[in-house]
Design goal:
By secondary structure, the chain is of the alpha/beta class. It contains eight helices and nine strands. It has a domain of 133 residues: P-loop containing nucleotide triphosphate hydrolases (Rossmann fold), CATH 3.40.50. Helix content is 43%, strand content 19%. The strands form two sheets. Strands 2-7-1-8-9 form a five-stranded parallel sheet, sandwiched between helices. Helix 1 packs across helix 7. The chain is globular and about 65 Å long. The model has no long low-confidence stretch (mean pLDDT 93). Bound molecules: adenosine-5'-diphosphate and guanosine-5'-monophosphate (5GP). Adenosine-5'-diphosphate binds next to helix 1 and helix 5.
């Protein structure tokens, strides 16, 4: 039975290097109905990062213009250096089509989304330990020593925000973490408040 309903908004946070990108990429490979929101940032691209795929890389002036136009669902000054923001239009259009949208954003941005969209599903990806987190960040080979130090220090403050989230997924064995993300999606889609149209039809005695 086809159930037409609005797609989920999944907010996925977790410290840098925990594996958010890796987990989400695998999840999307398996579920084409899940779309990743591409953020706008003023930071410089890392080697291999493509404009419009990993981020929309923009100048501070362009970013400011988007703020004025109310084009962001949320935006944030992250790590005291760069701006990051979630374009509003993509999220709304995809959810209306019934697709699920993932926002991979920091904890402060996540709290703003939770306020603006109370039906958002808040997921925190945590590391098995802080030592493993640091080794993944170093192993990725994308950060300077200074950046690793800043991000490791930030990680502790981010972990303290865990109780604000609906779900905690520990990314130890990748396959298991992806399976847990799938379980969250399944459970959320079964919530009665996400199926009000169907419930109204059933209780109204209509043939479906
Ligand atoms: P994030 O998006 O959270 O910053 P990434 O997805 O870039 O993190 O992952 C950081 C590094 O950790 C990458 O080199 C990735 O291959 C590795 N990684 C991710 N998940 C796991 C896992 N479950 N076990 C071991 N290494 C992992
Ligand atoms: P990175 O520079 O490693 O790509 O990302 C740095 C941090 O910015 C990460 O914690 C990432 O989740 C966060 N981030 C990426 N896009 C956004 C966004 O649109 N809004 C907010 N608030 N944070 C974001």
């Amino acid at each position: 039975m086809a159930r037409k309903r609005k797609g989920l908004l999944l907010v996925v946070s977790g410290p840098a290097g925990v594996g958010k990108g890796t987990v989400n990429a695998m999840l999307m490979q398996r579920h084409p109905e899940i779309k990743m929101s591409v953020s706008v940032t003023t930071r410089a691209p890392r080697p291999g990062e493509i404009d419009g795929v990993h981020y929309f890389f923009r100048t501070k002036e362009e970013f400011d213009r988007m703020i004025e136009e109310n084009a962001f669902l949320e935006y944030m000054h992250v790590f005291g250096m760069n701006y990051y923001g979630t374009p509003r239009s993509f999220v709304e259009a995809e959810r209306e089509k019934g697709n699920h949208v993932i926002l991979e954003i920091d904890v402060q941005g996540a709290m703003k989304v939770k306020e603006a969209c109370p039906d958002a599903v808040m997921v925190f990806i945590a590391p098995p330990s802080l030592a493993i987190l640091k080794s993944r960040l170093v192993g990725r080979g994308t950060e300077t020593q200074e950046s690793i130090d800043v991000r490791t220090a930030t990680a502790l403050n981010e972990l303290k925000m865990l109780p604000q989230y609906d779900y905690m997924v520990i990314n130890d064995v990748l396959e298991e973490a992806v399976g847990e993300m799938e379980s969250i999606l399944t459970s959320e889609l079964l919530r009665t408040e996400r199926n009000t149209t169907l419930i109204e039809k059933l209780t109204g005695g209509e043939t479906i």
